[in-house]
Amino acid sequence: MRRIFFRKKSYEGVGSLSSLAWKRFRKDKLAMVSLIVVAMATILAILGYLITPDATPFANSQHLELAAKKPGFSVTMLKVRKNQPADNTNFFRKMIYGKKSDYTYYPLYSWYFEGSNIIAEDYTGDDPNDGAIKKFSLVDIVYQKKFNITLTQLQETIKKENITKQTFLLGTDRYGRDLVSQLIIGTRVSLSVGFISVLISLIIGILLGSLAGFFRGWVDNLIVWFINVVWSIPTLLLVIAITFALGKGFWQVFVAVGLTMWVDVARVVRGQILSIREKEFVEAGKALGYRNFRIIFRHILPNVMGPVIVISAANFASAILIEAGLSFLGVGVQPPMPSWGTMIKEHYAYIILNSAHLAILPGIAIMIMVLCFMLIGNGLRDALDTRTVNR
User: Is the model's pTM score more than 0.85?
Assistant: First the structure.
């Protein structure tokens, strides 16, 4: 009994293969840092408009007089209530789609009260400013607000609530939109394209690779021929062709990228299944009368998912690059939806106009995200390597 207890205790101390792989992955510091960066980017993408300074749909609040301002730029804003019912968008809808602002914002250079009006000079950014002089009624500024206060109290209320100082941490783009908001929503686009494209490629690649590797014969020959045909077409050209066929847009990019990335998955799955289809547990399943699809999906595929997970991480990085390239070429995500590739396209000329950050920042975001996924893929490759799992 003592010997049996000792063996059981030693076995439990080893842990499952997944726990061993996780322990090995955690030892890779670069992979862990990359995983943390991707997790933080995912949180930003999910929260979206709840944390962006500009919570309007597509972060598309434009002020042309504030175009291409430097990081840290601040300006005084006058909030004038719109002559329309308030937008009562709920929490989750705002998080996903944003919320129309109940106010119209006017950048001001200077202002002062004159009785029941505000006299303001528009901000132009010139030196001297030389902006137009406008008159705003205090009652119009707080439209639809019920109040029974004196003129002095109304002026104090407007001074506290409707005249604010807005700071653009990373400056503004060529249309005067907040660059931080554009980058955050662009993160959502890139991660969404990567996730859904990889999902589509996994579904198609695992299905075709499993059929080819398990059944072999004419099924294998047909699928391999199809794989070679798709493999021979340059990826970017194939994506552009599919995009033109499906139309330009957000969802079309998902499908186009996913339909071109399944080849790698199918080749890996086919090769792995060919190497283990003659194993004893597969023969046992056949002897027990299990159906072929049950043997494939419940007994074989769990043993080949390691390489598939690794290649999926690499495909995620490729999907982000492809989406950025398509948006840069104008056939990907369409304005006004923010995309890192679109941001580079709109501002690459500013590199020589003393506003290089407008194109460099989204480029750095693409570089960091792609690098993180590649490092995660390398970490998973080492962690799932059964030849070194006991080292």
Answer: yes
